[in-house]
Amino acid sequence: MMPRWGWMIGGLAVLVAAVVALFPLRLALRDRGIAADEISGSIWRGHLTGARWHGIALGDLDTSARAWPPAIDFSGSVLRGRLTPTGVEGLSGNIEDFAGLPLAQISLDNVTVLANDNGCSFAGGVVAVYAQPVPQLGALSGPLICQNGVLRAVLTPEQGDARVDLSLDKNNRYRAVLTVGSLPAMVRMGLIIAGFEATDKGVAMTREGQL
């Protein structure tokens, strides 16, 4: 006959396993800035309807977790990748909802961003954006890097005199600067009317904020 303490330990183990298995997905994602219209399932397998990251629409996502190394994989029509304790890995997809930024779309290709207490510690992958005010530029793309704890990207088009400078610090403060160089006088005037500022390099639009 199993001693009383053996039954107690066995019962406690079953209870712990049940709590882990049924741990709500909502609680696991809350501290990562992820919300949704509806979150169902456990941390091991769940579904997010109308997912958002700091207000940025990510669509519907299916999720599944693994114990070691700890991570939550997610996939949907907009985005797919993996959440880890230190950041995101293998992030790919197209995001179109960027209120306040002069961007029509951001495309992510195998993006990995890891962070520690000092901010960005590792970044890789390629980002491409489409500048809303100047669609004729096409895609502006470039690699992600970490610089002094800040996530940065300098994006340029295949042709044309333009660039987008993006940065995000450890406090989720972002800065986006779209600079367009040599332009016909009428186009330049139109962009200035649309909110661009004249600079010695052409015209520029800057947006800053907090995610």
Task: Give a written overview of the molecule.
The protein is an alpha+beta fold and 211 residues long. The protein has two domains: 84 residues, no CATH class; 126 residues. It contains three helices and 15 strands. The protein has a 15-stranded antiparallel beta sheet that branches. It is elongated, with a radius of gyration of 22 Å. The relative contact order is 0.09. The N terminus is likely disordered.
Q: What percentage of residues falls in helices of 4 or more residues?
A: 10-25%
The poorly predicted ranges are 1-24
Radius of gyration: 22 Å
| SSE pattern | HHEEEEEEEEEEEEEHEE
Whole-number count of domains: 2
Rounded mean pLDDT score: 76
User: What structural class results from the helix and strand content?
Assistant: alpha+beta
SS summary, helix count = 3
Q: Specify the overall morphology.
A: elongated
What portion of the residues fall into strands of 2 or more residues?
A: over 45%
Q: Give the CA-CA distance, first to last residue.
A: 59 Å
Largest sheet: 15 strands, antiparallel
How many beta-strand elements? 15
